[in-house]
């Protein structure tokens, strides 16, 4: 945790000022245009995940103590930090999902034997209490391969026991949505038809067991890197889904020079053709369902310590938040809230990592209406994404400076409002270095205060006639509360 002293703050501000003085300045054009928004994201768009233990569960992978079975959900600082992120989906699932056994008192259809991970009902009750206190919308991934069965021949008895217990002990809406299987299309080469048959069995369980008018939603199929399989599944079962889901990671957590990859615009853009193809399939075969990225983080394999839990990760994260909203996604489940080396909240200290503060700012500033935004072709390392403001009329634009050199972009905003004639409010996130484990907002270190107080995230008002600059190694948000336009009135 950074030292809590004014002298440190002063040194950081002076250092940033000296650094920016040496930066090259490049002109950049950003246009926000259109007569209507291009998409509207729900309040839950920016969401999070929790995961299960890995084999070995050691320090090398970052999963020691950071899984659903390990977290103390009653810790006050965790409750305080998590509550700030809602409304949001909390998706519980992951690689060990299809090795889970639900240990239900006096109703168990299976014993917790070696090779299976057990969810007992004490932990399940802790999860339910956590969700109720924080306001998350719970989505839970069920075991499709229970008892070594293969898709198309699902052994549902253990799931039936979990649903029965949940409906008996908790409100009918305690679980918003059930998933089934974790990327089984890729791990076992199972057919879309066999998985769709299992989803049909789950649908029957929900229809029979849930009260009329209070049925949980079905969400899936959590496919990874296979659009054809995704489309084939949706042709068979898409009409019954509330949301269609896929998983995506651009890079390997074990990659050398991972930090540079997280600042690479081409690496970021690798998701675009995949996202567009998944969107096309969803619109064709499940038009009433939403499109979610059900699991995505800065790098697969748990991330990389010192990189995906540092400030450099926030450049990737903000670019993905803005890009997927432009690509008409309804929910982006960030891997993870806790667990692995890409967690938003450190599972050892319960202190927020830099990406937590970025997500919190997104939640507070970026509204539901997504505006068409274009950056000039001469500055591909500058990213900009415009939304209507979260609170009241006006426009807010998220900026990401991906230039690895000491380059500041001086931005000219044009389009649906006159940026030069209205006061703006700037929120710039920076750090002493890209591998910093803390972050500053307009030069002030962000940290949890006494009694778990979450600080106010105040912006800096700037006259519209002053140049708008996105400094090197900086990301942030700029809002124009008085921007006059018909879309964000």
Account of the 3D structure:
The protein is an alpha/beta fold and 489 residues long. The chain is 28% helix and 25% strand. The chain is built from twelve helices and 22 strands. Strands 1, 2, 13, 14, 15, 16, 17, 18, 19, 20, 21 and 22 form a twelve-stranded mixed sheet that branches. α6 packs across α7, α7 packs parallel to α10 and α11 runs parallel beside α12. The longest helix has 18 residues. The two termini are 42 Å apart.
Shape: globular
Low-confidence segments, ≥5 residues, pLDDT <50?
1-8, 10-15
Helix and strand content put the structural class at alpha/beta
How many angstroms does the end-to-end distance come to? 42 Å
Total strands: the figure is 22
CA radius of gyration is: 23 Å
Helix content: 25-40%
**Multimeric state:** single chain
How would a textbook summarize the main sheet? 12 strands, mixed
Mean pLDDT rating: 91
Beta fraction: 15-25%
The number of helices is 12
Key terms:
489 residues, alpha/beta, twelve-stranded mixed sheet, 12 helices, 25% strand
Write the layout of secondary structure elements.
Elements: H1 6-21, E1 24-33, E2 39-40, E3 46-50, H2 76-83, E4 89-92, E5 100-103, E6 117-120, H3 121-134, E7 137-142, H4 157-169, E8 177-180, H5 184-187, H6 192-209, E9 217-224, H7 227-237, E10 243-247, H8 258-262, H9 265-269, H10 271-285, E11 290-296, H11 312-326, E12 331-334, H12 354-365, E13 366-375, E14 382-389, E15 395-401, E16 407-415, E17 424-430, E18 440-441, E19 444-445, E20 460-462, E21 468-470, E22 475-480
Parallel strand pairs: 1-16, 3-4, 3-12, 4-7, 5-6, 7-8, 8-9, 9-10, 10-11, 11-12
Antiparallel strand pairs: 1-13, 2-13, 13-14, 14-15, 15-22, 16-21, 17-18, 17-20, 17-22, 18-19
Helix pairs in contact: 6-7, 7-10, 11-12
């Amino acid at each position: 945790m950074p030292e809590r002293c004014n002298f440190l703050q002063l040194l950081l501000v002076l250092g940033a000022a000296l650094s920016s003085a040496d930066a090259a300045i490049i002109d950049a054009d950003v246009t926000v245009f259109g007569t209507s928004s291009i998409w509207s994201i729900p309040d839950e768009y920016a969401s999070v995940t929790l995961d299960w233990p890995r084999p070995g569960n050691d320090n090398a992978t970052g999963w020691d103590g950071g899984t659903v079975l390990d977290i103390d959900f009653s810790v006050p600082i965790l409750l305080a930090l998590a509550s700030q992120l809602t409304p949001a989906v909390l998706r519980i699932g992951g690689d060990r999902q299809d090795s889970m056994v639900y240990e239900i008192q006096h109703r168990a259809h299976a014993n917790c034997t070696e090779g299976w991970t057990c969810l007992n009902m004490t932990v399940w009750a802790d999860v339910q209490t956590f969700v109720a206190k924080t306001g998350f919308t719970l989505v839970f991934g069920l075991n499709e391969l229970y008892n070594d069965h293969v898709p198309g021949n699902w052994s549902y008895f253990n799931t039936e026991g979990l649903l029965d217990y949940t409906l008996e002990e908790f409100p009918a809406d305690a679980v918003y949505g059930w998933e089934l299987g974790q990327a089984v299309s890729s791990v076992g080469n199972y057919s879309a038809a066999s998985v769709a048959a299992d989803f049909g069995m789950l649908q029957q369980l929900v229809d029979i067991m849930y009260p009329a008018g209070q049925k949980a939603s079905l969400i899936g199929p959590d496919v990874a890197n296979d659009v054809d399989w995704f489309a084939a599944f949706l042709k068979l079962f898409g009409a019954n889904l509330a949301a269609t889901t896929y998983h995506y990671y651009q890079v390997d957590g074990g990659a050398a020079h991972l930090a540079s990859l997280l600042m690479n615009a081409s690496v970021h853009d690798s998701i675009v053709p995949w996202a567009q193809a998944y969107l096309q399939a969803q619109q064709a075969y499940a038009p009433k369902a939403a499109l979610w990225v059900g699991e995505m983080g800065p790098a697969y394999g748990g991330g990389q310590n010192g990189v995906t839990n540092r400030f450099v990760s926030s450049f990737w994260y903000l670019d993905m938040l803005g890009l997927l909203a432009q690509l008409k996604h309804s929910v982006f489940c960030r891997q993870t809230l806790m667990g692995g080396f890409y967690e938003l909240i450190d599972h050892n200290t319960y202190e927020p990592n830099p990406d937590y503060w970025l997500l919190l700012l997104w939640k507070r500033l970026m509204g539901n209406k997504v505006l068409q935004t274009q950056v000039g072709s001469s500055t591909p390392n500058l990213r900009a994404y415009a939304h209507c403001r979260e609170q009241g009329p006006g426009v807010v634009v998220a900026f990401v400076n991906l230039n690895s050199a000491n380059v500041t972009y001086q931005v000219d905003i044009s389009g649906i409002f006159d940026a030069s004639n209205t006061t703006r409010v700037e929120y710039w996130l920076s750090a002493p270095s890209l591998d910093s484990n803390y972050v500053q907002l307009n030069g002030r270190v962000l940290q949890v205060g006494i009694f778990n107080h979450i600080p106010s995230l105040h912006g800096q008002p700037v006259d519209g006639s002053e140049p708008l600059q996105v400094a090197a190694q900086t990301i942030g948000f700029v809002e124009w509360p008085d921007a006059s336009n018909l879309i964000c009135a």
